[in-house]
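Cross-posted from the bioinformatics board.
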Amino acid sequence: MLEIKNLHVAVGGKEILKGLSLSIRAGEVHAIMGPNGSGKSTLSYVLAGRAGYDITQGSILYNGENLAALSPEVRAAKGVFLAMQYPVEIPGVTTMTFLKTALNSQRRARGESDIDAVGVLKLVRAKAKTLNVSEEMLKRALNVGFSGGEKKRLEILQMAIFEPKLAILDETDSGLDIDALKLVAEGVNTLRDPARAMLVITHYQRLLDYIVPDRIHVLANGRIVAEGGKELALELEAKGYEHIVKEPA
Amino acid sequence: MAALVLGLPEARRNEAAAVFRARGVPHRRIEEWKYSDLKSALGEAGVGAVVAQWLVGNLPCGVEVFDLAQNNPPAEIPDWVRENFATATHNAMSSASLALSSGGVAFRVPKGAQITDLLKVDFTGPGHVRGLLVLEDGASLTLVEGVGIADFRNVGFEIVLGEGASLDHVRISPDGGEAVLVEEAAVHVAARAIYRAHFAGFGSKLSRMELEIALEGEGAQAHLSGVSVLDGKRHSDVTTHVIHRVGNTNSTQLFKHVAGGGSRAVYQGKVTVAKGANGSDSNQSAKALLLGDGAEADLKPELEIFADDVKCAHGAAVGDLDAESLFYLRARGIPETEARGLLLHAFLEDAVAEISNIDQRELVRTELLTALRAMA
């Protein structure tokens, strides 16, 4: 589903990713771990299409298509979803209005018909319940006054509503206490699907206790320096990043 | 000299004429008119001495109306007009309308009357015209002021709120093209009375709404809000002066502007807290988004404090749409144009939400959406 080859990305003229390669098939959950400044967030932004992240070399193929040529909204309509580390607050747009606009924008782009307000409300309510997202939150302005946990839950709620093919979770565990982490992880786990690929980006092994990945990649200095199964997370936890980063990959 | 406005003593008219003669047509070298050069906008035509028109929609039951020009045959002038009309002013354009106009309209809402229907008043045609609105003690009303397009019009409006009275003043100024439209409102707010105003403006060659609000009794409040969406060469100026004459008075101001093309948005807001007006509370906020390289926003909040123990806050900010918010919306599938529209609408929304009347609020929202769509 996702095929990244020798990817070099510069931000403001500075090279952050330096030849990253990665391949994820449908149904798989991969984790990317790495110390601060290794390029984790750069990878997530470049996959979602944020401006200012310039691909200087290499390629990203998404279902055989050149992802870099697509605008962020087209990527979203084609099933790419990024759960952001810092979801933005947008005063003046209610969460419900945002969800409805986004869902129908994606549907329209795929040539599907709009879902009416009542239909969207039903859909959102059903999914919101399991993620403990209250009616009151849905009525509030998007992310305004939400706690860290509420923001992350809303990101996962969006993932449940939009049903993406490729979901990227950027440090979804940051700022969460253990209960919130479990809730979010459960939400993610229910979305595991043979047709869906997930890329879980995290600094800590903790999240991977709850979302067990099929494969782990260690990112350091803009490159994958180690790869392995879920046991690699435990090794990192025990020995730290330095141990792995120093060894030749 | 034009015919007399009924009830305006000759001496008062001469005084107004003298003020206007001394001050002349305001231009950019006068500080308060720095961003709105009326003299150059009017050019050779000047202010003229034509009498502009007014139109009243269905008059709500309980509201009394009086034509300030119906002096032939002379009608008896009601006391409420005599007492409240044409109080002294140093304002050049307000003096001009007093000196040059023989037309205008006055309204009265009697003591304690709660008027639920809207009072709709349109000022139309070119020239000068006067308005007077008196809400007696405990009365309440929603005034919807319409702004007709004309080459040049100057409205002088006086609003008097008795103790505990409550007025919602909504003024929607449509895209006026090449029109030059100015208005001066002088508002007197007695103890515990509340004046709420919302100004939605789409600009013209020169558009200026100038307000002088005096909070004259304890517990008096003024809450002003406004939005403008400007494109092309449009100009829109809201200039306010809120005077806290006594203590325990409260005023808030929230103005939002979106300026595209080569347009200019102006907000000048002065708050004066008079000596002894302790415990006054005022808050001013003005923000503008500039969408065009040639667009300009001049935001000038100003405080003048002569009292102790007052809470005054003011702020102004000019910027562009937040790139991070835009990316967030697009990453969720919302096309760029629509995402920009949503963010612009959101930017204006807190000021629009200040409009109490639901129908008027929806009307302003619709007008804003149309204007924003035309700019996208």
